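To: structure desk
From: M.T.
Subject: fold request, one chain
Message: Could you run this one when you get a chance? Sequence is below, nothing fancy, just the single chain.
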Amino acid sequence: MAKLSSVNKNNRRIKLSDKYYKKRKNLKKIIMNKKLGLEERFKAQQKLSKLPRNSSKTRVMNRCQITGRPHGVYRKLKISRIALRKLGLEGKIPGMIKSSW
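Reply: Done. Structure tokens follow.
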């Protein structure tokens, strides 16, 4: 199991990124629009930098939903390779069997 503080910190980041998603998207659209004036784009850039750092989607870590492990996580299933293997051996994932040769 991962440290509970790390898991909680990541959950806070997820909530912040969801909260500020639309605001960040609109500001980035203004910044990337070359038709607007330099002054207006610069103000949008300053507003973007004033937002909390953890509100960025790139700060969110992919963690296992079962163990909280940060590495070796399958994106589609949102579980780590170790938890996936364990569930597969227990027969809890349909279509997954232990290979042998």
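Reply (cont.): The chain has a mean pLDDT of 94. Let me know if you need anything else for the meeting.
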